[in-house]
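Model: Ready when you are.
Researcher: Fold this.
Model:
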Amino acid sequence: MTATAADERVAGVGPLRRLLIRPELGAVVGLVVVFAFFASQSAVFRSPDGIANWLDPAATLGIMAVAIALLMIGGEFDLSAGVLTGTTGLILVTLATRYGVNVWLAMLAGLVVALAIGYANGLIVTRTKLPSFIVTLGTFLMLQGVNLGVTKALTGTVQVSGLRRASGFESARVLFAGTIEIGGTSFRVAILWWILVTAVATWVLMRSRPGNWIFAVGGDEQAARAVGVPAARTKIALFMTTAFAAWLVGSILALRYTSVQANIGIGQEFIYIIAAVIGGCLLTGGYGSAIGASIGAVIFGMADKGIVFLGWDADWFKFFLGAMLLLATLANRLVRRYAEEVKR
């Protein structure tokens, strides 16, 4: 009697195939190529000081990109994430400088407002079934108006400053906007926050039940509901996670520069989405990784500073963004097709 074919549900998948279907594979290849190019052209780029220089913008971008990646895996978008970083920063600086509130309490107030906005976004999306693109675009416009209107009404300008003189500033600055020495080179503390956020997000996605829920609601929300996944609560939590990341980045930037402009963060929401896409997230949801989004942020940081180190016109950075978005989208499509073939 001939041996029966192995059940496909228990058939083994080789290590090479497991590697090839990883969502962050394309981002890793892009990271190696971009680093090799700039490192070969600039000694400063590959020096410890140069690495610290391009890891700095990658850190704040990475924190947001990871949160946006989780939301995209869950099948939604948040176009208000960029301007919300400005809102939380303005709340912090305004309360601390104009009303004498301790910096830590002002940060807590900013966090409460951010989480409330994230909750509202998620609630509206889940209750009305409107596209999150439309809902968060409306939030983006409202926050932009509030940021500009309130700041001008209080200061007569579009900027609030003077945070350095506020009580509690030094302790908050050390924790969120300070530096650490590694081998004689100063690195921003924001890098540690970025690593922590990436590690927690990766654990949630790969090792927890909520991670399964995120993939499920992003892949097929109706099917997820049918098997008992709390789809609405999961999506609301994802919007609140994005809002938390916006508060963290807004606080870091406010404490670093001790002032905030009313238009800060506007336009950055697209950068966050692009970084997540480069990292392997699909626009259709249900696929991606937090590590990939972080790698996408590193690629952006390297290109941003690498172009400066080489003395190129900064306008080429926009060309780079567009090229990376197209290449990453094509690569993700090919990887997704291969992944589907492996499952058959």
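Researcher: Now this one.
Model:
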Amino acid sequence: MNLELFIAKRLIKGKQHKISISAPIIKIAIAAIALGILMMLIAVSTGVGLKYKIREKIAAFNGHIQIYNYDNNNSEVSVIPVSLQQDFYPDFNLVEGVRHIQAVATKAGIIRTEDTFEGIIAKGVGEDYDWTAFKDFLIRGELPDYSSKLNSEVLMSALMASRLQMDVGDEFFTFFLKEEDPSKIPNQRKFKITGIYDSGFEEFDGTYIITDIRHIQRMNQWESEEVGNFEVFLTDFDTIEEKSAEIYGQTLSTLDTQTIKNKYYKIFEWIGLFDFNIGIIIGIMIIVGGINMITALLVLILERTPMIGVLKALGAANWSIRKVFLYNAAYLILIGLFWGNLLGLGLIWFQDRFRYFQFPNPQEYYIDYIPVYMDLPTILLLNAGVLLLCMLMLLIPSHIITRISPVKAIKFD
């Protein structure tokens, strides 16, 4: 039988515990723990959720890793073609952790209407293209079908469609300069909008239209087996640097690789600050909760000073008495964690389900609502961390029990 735990349970269940002068302080301490874990869950879920969403949107337009020919071209336009006859295409089995690979090509052009014009980049894709992300971005119409014969269907962003005053079903002409001789009459293509998408990423929405890659191959006078570059998608984004090095080692010496972290390093440096902010919030909440628990423990010790004197007079060791109060404090922390998790996880589920809370300035965060993400290991780690750190913080104030004299404690009033 655990004597310390038995005494702690009697203290917790006793009526005197509920009507004592320490009751309000204990409730405040429990509320501080609940508020702390609530804020931690919200900080982690929103920070990680926003980071994941931004990464997904960048990857939707670029893949995680790009494979292309060595050249001095730093623009977004494909210049030197890459052959499809590669060992890693269409199935990249040479490197573990690659989910998908697709061939694309890009070409700059100008959309001209009766009233206005807009500079664009036409991104050519084929039947191997992964439309998963654009299914979420699609707001009107349907996705184009490039699995059969060449067609004029394109996917345009809502931002570009608004600038050009167009919608699903409208047709337009696009002019593309000839790479071999820009002074010649440009290539002209007539396209039809089959779908409108909105990724929330103005840098991409204001630039790209999605079209059939065969249009770009014909305009660039490429063979059907030539494309602009390959886009590689990974199963685990956190391994992107490692997998990029492995992929580079498995490709020809004439090919180079680039990760989206390097291509958009400013954006990834910005979202990297989310982890620092989350750490600051977690640290502050643990300190606040710990200080409140220290106060509650000292009040409990002060209130139970006569009991401490009696236990010492009966031969109880200092550590044994300290364990009684630490068990009591752990019980209070667990109550706070329970209510904090209940409220925090409920709020996270509500936001994930209904997306009620919105960003006042979505253009700065590339998304209109506040995204959330939470997994079981993170929840367990947060709760275990709060419990462990708070208990470690309580070891110091519980040392005051060793200073209490049995004779003075029994007379204490």
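Researcher: Key takeaway?
Model: Residues 23-62 form the longest helix (40 residues).
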